[in-house]
Give the backbone structure.
Amino acid sequence: MQYHAAFRCIAGCPGEHSLLTPVYHCPSCGNLLEVAHDIDVLSKRGPGSWMRLFDERYKRTIWPYGSAVWGKKEWVCPAVDDDNIVSMDEGGTNLFWAERFGAELGLDELWVKQCGNSHTGSFKDLGMTVLVSVVRQMIRSGRNIRAVACASTGDTSASLAAYAAAGGVPAIVILPRGKVSTAQLMQPLANGATVLALDTDFDGCMAIVRRLATEEGIYLANSMNSLRLEGQKTVSIEIVQQFDWEVPDVVIIPGGNLGNVSALGAGFDMMARLGLTTRQPRIVVAQAAAANPLYLAYQNDWRFEPIAARATQASAIQIGNPVSIEKAIRTLRRYDGIVEQASESELANAAALADRTGMFNCPHTGVALAVLIKLRSNGSITPNQRVVVISTANGLKFTEFKHRYHERALAEVSADHANLPVELPRDYDAVRRAVDTVVEA
Ligand SMILES: *Cc1c(COP(=O)(O)O)cnc(C)c1O
């Protein structure tokens, strides 16, 4: 079967562009591109047969299909040769029933999709494996690509650096100085990327990397490059697969540059078009109140204005001028979308409250959980709905956030669930008294 996918203008200009050319915008109108698949060819295989194929491959060992991204290769990027794929076994992350936290909120079916349990600790790996594999194919077929580069709020650069290093491609990452966590700064350094830390914010870094890509023969690895979204969209397919091909009622995702909410919708679209699903979830985007341009647009009949994002603990979504705004609005209109925001205090306390039921949440997941709490208490989410919260990064990348929360040292946050070590001398009675104060006799 000859599967086919190509770039197409999101505004509908005619023509298509090969996935194996460095092109990020429509040459006619300047809009973003998206990857379009030949649905007629894909529908020659029936829905049951696709489900069986994906289930057979899931987390097995036949290269490259054990990766939950490449296990859906025909739907993602059929043009890449298997021996050009740069994969470190992406996806297949746990989707667990958060029984106790759900019960505290009056929800029977709260599920957390733990995307941060991945190679570099965030869901960015799902897309980066696709982008770097395509780059390797282009280089091996003789195209001159000097390096891959991205502007990043931390996780994109960690992921790009790891996949570029695995694939033997030079990587350049451009970060806002002092605005990413220590772990996120160490990751690209350890992987040997060139790290440029600029005195600006993410939006400032983005403007510079765009110029590098157009003027210097550097391949752009930001989500403006819709190849990444093809990998990211497997998250919705994987969630439905993990529910034995049932669609949940609500999916909540934290949003910054807004590529991922579009990717989430694209995965649901594709399952519906190919007959694997017959219903749609409601999609909720959660934003930090300090960086809420989509929330403001939602309040204003989807009229969007860029803003200057303020500092937030949810540093990976501190973005005021999201690149994928149009794609995101289009997705939310189709998926009965809701946008809600969370203050610094709300996001930090939601993360900590859920941690008390056994999780270890990053601040972005905290934003999603705070929004869940709000929507549950205002009745937008009802007790019997099946809700999935997408946890986007591993909490262990954000230990400064946790540490300062529990020390009650975070700005604008009253830490309602702080828990500090009890420091004691080496004395049995002191320890016994400490135990007696917390545990019933
Ligand atoms: C990138 C990222 C997001 C937001 O994804 P967008 O596509 O930029 O909206 C959320 N959380 C974490 C941890 C991220 O790294």
